[in-house]
Structures are given as C-alpha cells and as structure tokens.
Write a structure and sequence with these properties.
486 residues, mainly alpha, two-stranded antiparallel ribbon, 2 strands
Length: 486
C-alpha cells in the first residue's frame, strides 16, 4: 500500500503524458475495453466507499472496503483523470475517511499529502472537468476547500502558505466565496501582519474585500430565501420551505462570520483612527478627484468608526461631489452632524439609505441613524429607524437592542412608578428577540439584560398588586407594547 501511495503522489504531481481525455478526446479511453475498465473502477470506488462508511460497519469491513476503493481510485486518478468529476469528490471523501482511521503518523501524513495532491490535480484539469458536469466547478472554490483541509491537518501550518491559498481563492470567487473561507482569509491576513508589519496596507485591503464579500454572501442568501418562499407559495412543495429555513441558518452563520472579520481587524492593532488619518491624510488632497482612493478612505474609516476624523469627512465630501453614493452621503451627514446642523445631517443620512443597494447595508445604515436619534434622546425616531432596519433585514439583532435602549432611557410613560418599571419586561423581550434572530449579538444582549433585570418591579409589590409570573400586561404611552410578568 505504501508503495502505491508514493507512486501515486509522483503521478499526481507530474505532468501527464497521453492520458485519456487530457491529450486526446477519449475521456474513458480509446477502446471499448478502456471504457469498461473505467466504469468498473468507478463502480468499485463508489460502492466500496459507500459500504465502508456508517455506524453499522465493522472495522474489518471498513478496512477491506476502503482498500478496494483506494485501489480503484488510484487507477482512475492515473489513467482516467478527466473521465468523471466524482473521481475527485469521492476521492476526497475516501482520503478523509482514511486519514481519520489511520493511527500511524507516517501513513496519515502520506494520506494528507495525497489529499492535497487530489485538490491540485482537480484544479489542473478544471477546464476538462467542466465539460463533463452541469454544475460548473470553480478553481477558486476547490482551492478554498484545499486551504481549509490544509489548516485542519497541519496544526502549525505556515502562515504564508495558507494565506496565499486563501487570498487566491477569495480573489477568484469574491462574493461567491464560502463564508468559512472568507473568515479564514481575514484571520490569516492578520496573522501575516503580526509576522510582517509591512503587510499593514494589504491587511486594510483584505479587510475591505472580506467585508464586501461577506455582505454579498448574506444578500445572496436573502435572495435565496425570497425565491424559495415565493416558490413555496406558488407550488406548495415543502422542500422549498425547508430550503428557506436552511438559508436562514446560513445567514445566522454568515452574520457571525461578519462579526469575526470585524473583530480580527480591530484586534489586530493595524490601524487606529489616528493611524488611518496619518496614512490617508498625507495623500488626500492630491487624490481629491480620485474616486477609487476616496471610496477606500471612506470605507475603512467608517468601518472602524473613525467618522469624527477630518480626513474621513473631507474624503466623503470630495467623493459626494464627484458621485453621490451611500458611503459618501453618510460622510456628509456626519460632517453636518458634527457641526450641529442636525436637519441637514439627517437629509444626507436618508439619502444614504436611499442610495444603498444592499439590503444588509441598508439595514445597517438605518440602525446607525437610529443610534444618532438615540444620542439626541429622540426615542420614537430612534425606534422608527430601528424598525425600518428590521424591515430590510429581519435577521438583524442590533435594532432590537437599540429599541431596548430606547425603552430603558425613556421608560416613564405613566404616573405610576410600578407601571413604568414594567417597561423593563419589554426591554428584556427585545433582547430575547435580538438573540433569537441573530446569535452574533448574544454577548451584548446578555450584558444589557443584566442591567435591565435590576429595574423590573420588586417581587413583593408584584404580589401585592396581584400579578403572577406569566400574566400579560400592557405597557402604554409611546412604547405601547404588551409583555408578560417574569
């Protein structure tokens, strides 16, 4: 077996001479006998792999089945490299299972190397393989999967090697990247910066790209949800409803990734607001007609909440003069807000929301404006924008937290202090809803909950007034929400 593995490693890595389908048009071989052999090996691979994986499979059965599957796969990789796409998908499953079951470190390492070589050969013959499948393969996606497996099986994986794979994958796929690939791309970019501080400017670029791509992923899932729901309403197929729920879970996971990407960059220490002002400020005037440069400044500094910096405000104003965009309009809004011209600032904020095309970013802008109103203690307007954010993105938890803060800061709707204290039940309701729709905000929601729990009515007063746990109560005034006694 070891001899076969080493031989195959050489064959996979080396250039192929006169292989079926590579240098000729015979995918399965030039003769009927070749075609028969190819089909037989494919059947052996598929059948034995399937029969070797499962809860009811004994160790002896699995070992024998995997050995037969491996022999068949080895021939397919060597003699029929572009005959079937599942040579690669099944090969990856096979090697993954063999790695999991192998206890000998040396053999395990050989299987891992074979796995990496399988990804490489699949990428090498990607164009030929695309001709034989309806589902278009992508070199970028394959490379991303290789990088994730490389990380999985190499505890001390070289940062440069992993980063290079992930960066190339993301560059090819952009917004079509798997969210786990995008997250790891950002993670390893930060690790590269920690090893080499000259990577700082590239880290900023990587952060911008990762943020843009993950938003595209989330927006795509929203499109998928809407498509599935419309199809379900029209045809009533339960599969469409199930698929919609699947995409909702993917949005939850993607939003967590989005938060992780922010955290990686912020915690990297690569760029404080002062650092960014120094980096971009020196070149701002000479680039005030360079829209690409200006948009980069606006994007980075707004993401890091450096919206009070003159460099950011100037860049936004220059960009807005060239081409009004959502980001530029937000920057102009901040400038007027800083000057105290609130009405003018809100005009620009509303323009930004109108100009934004991404529903995810629309929601974020609405929520941001809501916090501006909260800062001015205009609680009803803050809640209005929070609800507007939820109308664009129902899986966004932060607007619920914003509304909870509005109620906390403006709880007095009654002359009765006991009734006012019941407002905090509504605050807790909102925090629960935030965590339910968006797991990424759980920590922040729990932090606020600890504060709000201290403000609910005292137990003895609840008892004196005849209230019991679970009883409904209406919180009136501008809040006007029903809740339950806890």
């Amino acid at each position: 077996m070891k001899k076969i593995i080493l031989t195959l490693l050489v064959l996979v890595a080396a250039s192929t001479n006169a292989q079926n389908g590579v240098t000729n048009n015979f995918r399965f071989g030039p003769t009927p006998e070749d075609s028969t052999l190819c089909i037989r090996h494919s059947s052996n691979l598929n059948t034995n792999l399937k029969n070797s994986i499962g809860k009811n499979v004994s160790e002896a059965q699995a070992k024998e089945g995997l050995a037969i599957a491996f022999e068949a796969w080895s021939v397919l990789m060597k003699d029929y490299p572009v005959a079937r796409v599942d040579t690669y998908t099944n090969g990856i499953k096979l090697l993954t299972e063999m790695i999991k079951r192998e206890s000998d470190p040396a053999k395990k390492s050989e299987y891992i190397n074979l796995l990496m070589g399988t990804y490489d050969q699949q990428i090498k013959y990607i164009d030929k393989l695309q001709e034989v499948t309806e589902t278009k393969l992508s070199a970028g996606k394959i490379l991303g999967k290789k990088a994730l497996d490389y990380i999985k099986y190499h505890k001390n994986a070289p940062v440069d090697s992993v980063y290079s794979m992930l960066a190339k994958s993301v560059e090819i796929e952009k917004g079509d990247s798997e969210y786990t690939v995008t997250q790891n791309f950002m993670k390893y970019s930060v690790q590269k910066y920690k090893q080499d501080k000259s990577h700082s400017s590239q880290l900023v670029e990587d952060y911008l790209n990762a943020q843009e791509y993950i938003v595209e992923v989330i927006d795509r899932y929203y499109d998928d949800i809407n498509r599935c729901r419309k199809k379900y309403e029209a045809e009533g197929d339960p599969k469409d409803s199930i698929n919609a729920m699947k995409y909702e879970k993917m949005i939850d996971a993607s939003r967590i990734v989005k938060g992780n990407i922010d955290a990686y960059f912020i915690n990297s220490g690569a760029a404080s607001c002062e650092d960014l002002s120094n980096i971009y400020g020196a070149k701002l005037e000479e680039n005030k007609t360079n829209l690409e440069y200006l948009n980069k400044v606006i994007s980075v500094m707004s993401m890091l909440k450096c919206t009070n910096e003159e460099v950011y405000l100037n860049a936004a104003e220059y960009a807005h003069q060239i081409e009004p965009t959502a980001k530029a309009a937000m920057g102009c809004g901040y400038r007027y807000y800083k000057k105290g011209e609130i009405a003018k600032a809100l005009e620009y904020f509303d323009q930004a929301i109108e100009l934004e095309t991404s529903v995810t970013k629309k929601a974020e802008l609405c929520n941001l404006v809501g916090y501006i109103y909260l800062d001015r203690k205009n609680f009803e307007s803050a809640r209005r924008y929070a609800n507007k954010a939820l109308s664009f993105n129902s899986k966004y938890g932060d607007p619920h937290i914003l509304i909870a803060q509005c109620y906390h800061m403006g709880p007095k709707w009654s002359s009765d202090d006991f009734e006012n204290a019941c407002t905090y039940y509504v605050c807790l309701d909102r925090l629960d809803r935030a965590k339910k729709v968006d797991p990424s905000v759980k920590r922040e929601a729990d932090r606020y909950a600890e504060v709000y729990k201290k403000n609910v009515p005292p137990v003895d007063e609840l008892f004196m007034r005849g209230y019991q746990k679970g009883k409904a109560i209406q919180v009136g005034g501008w809040i006007n929400e029903s809740t339950k006694i806890r």
